[in-house]
Amino acid sequence: MQTDSSTTFTQKTFPCPQCGASMIFTAKNATLTCEYCGSTTRFTPPALPIYEHDLDAALEKIEKRPRYDLKVPHQIKCPVCAAKFERKPNIRSMRCPYCDAPIVTNLDIFMPLAPESLLPFRIGEKKAKEIFTQWVGSLWFAPSELTRYTRSDTHFEGIYLPYWTYDAETITRYQGRRGEIRLRPARHTVIDDEGRLRTIETMEEEIEWWPVSGEVRLHFDDILIGATRTLPRKLADSLGPWDLEHLVPYDDKYLSGFESETYSVALEDGFDYAKSYMEYRITEAVRRDIGGDHQEIDWMRIYHRNKTFKYILLPVWTAHFRYRDKTYRFAINARTGTIKGERPYSKIKIFLAIFFALLLAATLFYFADTAESHPIIIRYFG
After folding, report:
1. Quick one: 105 and 145 in the same domain?
2. Are residues 94 and 236 in the same domain?
3. Whether the Cβ atoms of residue 330 and residue 341 lie closer than 8 Å to each other
């Protein structure tokens, strides 16, 4: 996508055809719903295929893309109340802080790439709060008063987060060694119960190593890499699995009422993360190919071919709560309800659990030792 000095930054809403108020996308019935009169409008996303794009061609195009001295706009003018406010970095859609109108911008015109597909919200805010409440109640060793804090201090925010998906075919050549366990007889001199030297024969294990070389081919499909810095990578990448087979073509209407981000992790950097994942899987495959009881890999050379990618948006409910002056963040997959996040621990509960575990172990050891020292003798009288 190219821009020039005439590029216009726009902000829009979706007015209700009945009363003119703003409409938002609702997860419950997958329609645009008026926030004022409640009327709904169904819409059909454009009938476009979900393409995989050539990664090398895209990186070359980005590198050669004309770079104009354009400043990405930071100020938003609300189309409803005309108030002006500052846009948060990388945020494409938001709500007006003055009239709460849902606003969608065309921020992507200033980016080398724009999303072409997304997964719409399936879980609404009410359901997300129920999932959170159940999660808090299921936490082991959580402080007893945590439920009270989270009930009163938790604000939920629906947001579309950017992700990259990568496909690749890999060819890996390697050299290593296969170790096979062999049993061999061995003699040892020991002292028996009566203090006499005795020679005993045992079977001992030894590893016999053989040089191995070979080639492993693997195909990787839809490796999902978070392109956001809003959530920690560990948290963003732990929300899967995602039903990517239900991706729909991008449409601004899906964003109405939610925040959405543009990517802050570059396409090339995302592929570096994907290669780390591939290398882990490839190493496992090489070890299986070497076989035997033990494996050692001297070197591997990995070649990536037919590399493709997609730029997609995925729906997440995010929130945080404060407990004893510390902030804890969590996120919910707005398709499946999977929840991951940070949580506090009760030191008292952990101490008591360890104490009672040690007490139980000591009790069992005492009775076992007593039983061994004072065996029960059963006499039969006939």
Report:
1. no
2. no
3. yes
